[in-house]
Structure formats: C-alpha cells, structure tokens
Amino acid sequence: MSYLQESDTSSTVHKIIFKAFDQVRGADSIICNTVQELEPKTISALQLEKPFYAIGPILPEGFTKSKLKTSLWTESDCNKWLDSKPVGSVLYVSFGSYAHISKKELEEIALGIADSEVNFVWALRPDTVSSIDPDPLPKGFVDDTRDRGLVVPWCRQIEVLGHKSAGGFLTHCGWNSILESIRCEVPLLCFPLLTDQFTNRKLVVRDWTIGIDLGGIDTNVNRRDVSKKIGRLMKEEEGNEMKLRVKEVRKTLESAISPIGSSQKNFDSFIEVMMTRSRSMAK
C-alpha cells in the first residue's frame, strides 16, 4: 500500500492513516464492509489478532434508484444521454472524490479513450489534476468525442453503473466503487492511485478476475495501452467472460447478506457480543 512506501511521513494523509493504525490496536473488535467469502485468508489472519466481523456489502436494496444525494457537489443527470446508447456499450470513467493524478497521466488516458472509439461517461472533477488547472483534458478532446462521449464534473455513480448501457468502469479502485460495480454487474479497468487501491486492484484482477489492470501511478500509462485494454474490456470475448464472472461475484455478495449468509451471521454475532457485554456492565 502506498502509505507503507512513503519516505515522507510528515504528510497529512500519512499522519491520519497511522493514527488509525494506533487507534485500532485499542479496539475490542472490528466490523468491516467486506465479505468473508471474498477475502477468506486476510480475514482469517485478522481474526487471529482480535474479533473481526465481515458484514458487507453495505448496499441497501434498490440503491441504484435512490434519490438520496451522495455528495454535496452538484450531480449531473446522465440518464437521457445513457438512454440513447446501446446496452452495455458505455464505459464509465471516474477517479473518485479525492485522489489526484498528473496531467500527463490524464492526457494519456484521455487520448486512449479517444482512440478506443467506445461510448463513455467521464465524471471529471475540476481539481482532478490541480485546483489551478480546471480543464486538464487535451485540447479538442471534448469536441472530437462529442458524438460518443459525455464529460461532467460529477454525477450519481450508482445511477450510471446501474443503467443498462453501462458496460465497463475505468476506476481508481476505491472500495465503495468496487462494491457498487460488482452489485451492478459491471467489470472494471483498474488504475489505482493511493492507499488501499493497489490491494483492491489485486483482488479484482488476480483473485476474482473481474477486471483488467490498466496500470496506476506506480507505472507509466500510455494511450496505446489504454485504448487496447478498453477494447479488451468493452469489445472482445475477454470482456464478456468477465461480465459472466462478475455476475457470480454479485451472487456471493447477495448470499452473504441473506438471512443465513455469512455477513448476516457475523452481524448477529457482533450484536450478541455487544449485548452480552452491556448486560455484564449493567450488573
């Protein structure tokens, strides 16, 4: 993980994360938004240290149709544009709500998207590269791809992923994004930027085989590779096979939160432990 490789330990992010490491040592137990069957070895190792309860995925039923805003930013409505595109033909692109990438990396990704000739929705925050560079896309990119692309500052991600035209997700590999993509049965193109995202990529690409590794800030990305891998995900048989596998992973998520599923059982066990401790303290 990136924060274990940093030579500069004075950064704000580094301090926040290592404070969390210190605090978790004092916890009596841990609950986590993951699924026992998806990370069995990691969870078993953690359970040797202290009680650890996998209770995910924390995704309410019908969440793709919820009207509840998920951020304070203005969210563009992409539905009309998505409705005009064929089923499974749109690549959704987003690097999340926090992480930043270099202008060079963003330009290469943009040029690769242009070369791929696929339909796309790109949620591109104005500060993705820098707060002083609100328009980091290559010159002419928006005009050249206007017939098949939609670039917005922000949108309701779950609504886009849940639309029938969504066929792939170029993502920074944030954990919530991965769970939402699996729930919507959309395979992934992985470009991790920091913290746990590199580990998440490993799960998606190597363990569950529901995505393709695009690289990340730990590699040099170029337009040719971007275009080629978008094609593999969106146009070739490899992508179709991943769509079948992501359906199976979704079934694992759904089974976990069923009345007899692992996450439901873990949550019940956690509640029982808390109730027992509460009764003991009350005596």
TrEMBL record:
Belongs to the UDP-glycosyltransferase family. It comes from the Eukaryota. PROSITE patterns: UDPGT (PS00375). InterPro entries: UDP_glucos_trans, UDP_glycos_trans_CS. Keywords: Glycosyltransferase, Transferase. Signal peptide: none annotated. This is Uncharacterized protein. It comes from Asparagus officinalis (Garden asparagus). One of its GO terms (molecular function) is hexosyltransferase activity.
